[in-house]
Every structure is written in C-alpha cells, then in structure tokens.
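Fold this sequence, please.
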Amino acid sequence: MSNKKKPKNHYEQEKVTRRKQRQIVVISTALVIILLVAIIGIVLKTQQSSQPNENQNNPSSQETPSINYKEQPIMGTANAPVKLVEFGDYRCPYCKEFDQRIVPKIKKDFIDNGKVSFTFINYTILGKGSQLAANAAEMIYHQYPDSFWNFHKALYAAQGDEKKEWVTKDLLTSIAKKTVPSLDEKNYKQTLDDLSYQNNVIQDYNLAKSMKVEVVPSLFIDGKLVNNPLDYDVVKEAINHSLKQGD
C-alpha cells in the first residue's frame, strides 16, 4: 500500500479558489470605496475654500473702506443719518446725467431736509483731461469750498464730446471765473500748470480701486453700492431703506 497523499478533490480546490476570489473582490471594493470617499472629501473641501463670499457676489452689499469725509466736498449736513458717496469723472456723460437729473431729486427729497449728505469723489478713468478737471475741482474745494458745488455743476454743464479732449486750462479758468467770486486767477492757473492737487486725485483713485469701483458713476449709500444709480426709483428706495434701518 502506497504512503503518498491523495490529491485534493477537484471540488475542494474550486471552493478554495472561489473563496480567494471573493476575498479579493471584497478587499478591492473596500479600497475603491475608501478612495472615492477621499476624492469626494478633497473636492468638497476645494469647492468650499474657493467659494466666493456672498458679499462678493452681491455688489449691493459691499461695505466701503473708511472714507475721510473731512477731505471731501459734502452737500448737506455733514452729520446726516444717511451718507451718499458718488465716484465720478467730469468727462463721463453718464456722470453728467446723474448730476443733472438724479442729484437735484436727491437734494429736494432728502438733502434739504437733513436726512442725507452727498459726497463727490473723483475717479479719473478717462484720461489726462479727467485728471486736469479733477485737479481744478480739488483746488476750488480746498481753497474756495463755498464755491465748489457751483463750479462742479458748471463743469458738468460745459462737458464736451467724450471722444475728444475738450478739457483745457482756458475752459477751466473761464468756469472758475464765473463761479468763484474771489478767485485768485494767477494762483489758479499756476495750480493747473503744476497739477498741485494731483496727490489728492491719486488718493481718490486709490480709494475707488480699494472699493472695487469699476464704472462711473458709482453710488454708495451708507457703504452699499447701488446697482443702478441712474434710476431714481432705485436710489430713493435704497435711501429710504437706510433711513428705516437707522430708526
């Protein structure tokens, strides 16, 4: 009788093989699930970190950096409960429209009764003429503050074609002589020659950039950007909303 071991039954070998295959499938499936979970986690984390802030998506809720109102012209009562700030360019036709069509309504409904103050800040984005006009306006404001708004309005009224360089020293001098009773013409002309208030113009420009101002005119009401400043109904509603919040 032989001492050799008999080979395993064919069915037993198949059973062992199937068991190993199932183990491999289970382990592989588990590894795939773990990998998928890890990938999903990474994707979600990336999306959350790159998700824009809600205020960035909604321009009307953007808060302004601090504005030094003492360095800017103000129409109305300085301590009015609601503060309006316009960023504008004297060469911009839409800014002219805002000044001539919207501002008078704001003045009549809110500024004259002390509810709102209005501040104009230069945002010179339309070339050298814009900077020259802004320098002239800055000079008038700092040296003849009582005459600023008359000069401001007259400068918009004299606006020429946006495609042409209509801003000249002679024009600015003519406007100043008509709107500033005690104008020192020689000093004024020298200021224009030297661009003496260019630092102020640059500061206003940098302020506008820091507030992410993209177009002119841009209107802020208590630090919130108004989406359509040329629609008075929109402006009025935003002002009333701010007044109610302050009650």
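The first strand starts at residue 74 and ends at 75. Confidence is low (pLDDT under 50) at residues 1-7, 48-64.
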